[in-house]
Automatic annotation (TrEMBL), chains A, B:
Lineage: Bacteria, Pseudomonadati, Pseudomonadota, Alphaproteobacteria, Rhodobacterales
Keywords in alphabetical order: DNA-binding, Transcription, Transcription regulation
PROSITE patterns: HTH_TETR_2
HTH tetR-type domain: residues covered: 12-72
Signal peptide segment: none
Protein name per UniProt: TetR/AcrR family transcriptional regulator
PANTHER family: HTH-TYPE TRANSCRIPTIONAL REGULATOR RUTR, TETR-FAMILY REGULATORY PROTEIN
InterPro entries reported in the protein's UniProt record: Homeodomain-like_sf, HTH-type_TetR-like_transc_reg, HTH_TetR, MT1864/Rv1816-like_C, Tet_transcr_reg_TetR-rel_C_sf
Residue ranges of the annotated DNA-binding region, renumbered to this chain: 35-54
DNA sequence: CCAACAAACTTGACAGTGTAAAGTTAGGCG
DNA sequence: CGCCTAACTTTACACTGTCAAGTTTGTTGG
């Protein structure tokens, strides 16, 4: 009610169709293939139609990022579900979901963290970003030493998995386009085994 | 001698001028501002001239990456010079140089690690990349446990500092365009304090 | 009921971009 | 000297984003 009345007259809401087309283009051809005109063509409208729904290409990207964050969170939640329920197991599962999202949807990840920190400068998507960020915050909480800033552990974990994901996407490890040396992720993420657990419980 | 005879006839070698112009554009306007035609204009030649020296825009980017790697290594070497000479101090200084390069030359970093892993798929720049990578390998060596793959520690450190640098560039931490919370780097990089030193010497 | 209005969308145009095909110049070499 | 190859220019084309007008369509006020 408070927001838009669902669909207008011509095209039962075009905005969502454009975002969907944009994501499809992103999956097929990476961030280079994302184009306002191609999105419009896929949605069956003229090339200038998107201007009435987004503020240019940058606006479309923020809208895609907003949607992408949902998928991002879903990947991490799915990994959390599959994995062990210990604090350290949950932290590692979250990272695994992060990596899997990046490898399967590299284009969306590029849009989310693209250019000048779209992830932070979008006011619109900050809610969804907050959701993804809250997952990280929650998983990190058991490893925050009493009296210290929780941000530190969060940034440590975030930097590690973010860097690993991007370096994998850039093909820095592995000879070619290998899907991923499954062992490498486990061995690299094992660095988090050295994070001391704050709560007195000793299970890993 | 074995390579090109320095300068030809018209423009005392244009290739270097184009790379220089490209780097300048990169510094001024980021990776979006890097354009074949603008490079050509800056070098005072026609817009199709670069085609005789690079294989399109991608080729120019690989040439810039090749040059950028030199600057990259120089930043890490400078940080190594300034810092303490203990194994752990050297490792942290390397990371500091990595971050400083990224913050000061974000455009070049984006080109180096841009798109589909230019950093790895360029055969031409692999020598320079090897140089930068050797610095990392060297700094990590004291922390490689006997009998384990050195790659693991290297990727751990690389992922951490790479992710932290990119997240800083994306403005994910800090409210706005703050140059950098100096303390945050130290606190995050302190994660490396937990890497056990392989050699029996106990100095940090 | 209908005229006015606003929003969605189209059409057309313009400045950039990469890139390919030609033509032009200039230095090297038989 | 005459050619020839490389460097460079000119021209052209298919794209891109973006703006300024029109045109349609649904709503709304009188």
């Amino acid at each position: 009610m408070t927001s838009k009345p669902d669909q207008k007259h011509h095209h039962g809401n075009l905005r969502a169709a454009l975002v969907e087309a944009g994501i499809a283009l992103l999956e097929e051809g990476g961030v280079e293939a994302l184009t306002l005109r191609k999105c419009a063509a896929r949605a069956g409208v003229s090339h200038a139609a998107p201007a009435h729904h987004f503020d240019g290409l940058a606006g479309l990207k923020t809208a895609i990022a907003e949607e992408g964050f949902r998928l991002f969170s879903a990947f991490m939640l799915a990994a959390l579900d599959r994995g062990p329920k210990t604090p350290r197991g949950r932290l590692k599962s979250l990272c695994r979901g992060y990596l899997e999202f990046g490898l399967e949807h590299g284009g969306i990840l590029a849009v989310i963290f693209g250019e000048r920190g779209l992830g932070s400068l979008i006011p619109g998507s900050s809610r969804e970003q907050a959701h993804a960020y809250l997952l990280l915050r929650e998983a990190c909480a058991p490893f925050v030493p009493a009296g210290t800033n929780a941000l530190i552990v969060e940034v440590q974990v975030w930097s590690l998995i973010h860097g690993f994901t991007l370096l994998c996407l850039a093909g820095e490890f592995g000879d070619g386009r290998a899907p991923l040396d499954e062992g490498l992720f486990d061995q690299v993420i094992a660095l988090l085994d050295r994070l001391p657990q704050a709560s007195p419980v000793a299970n890993t």
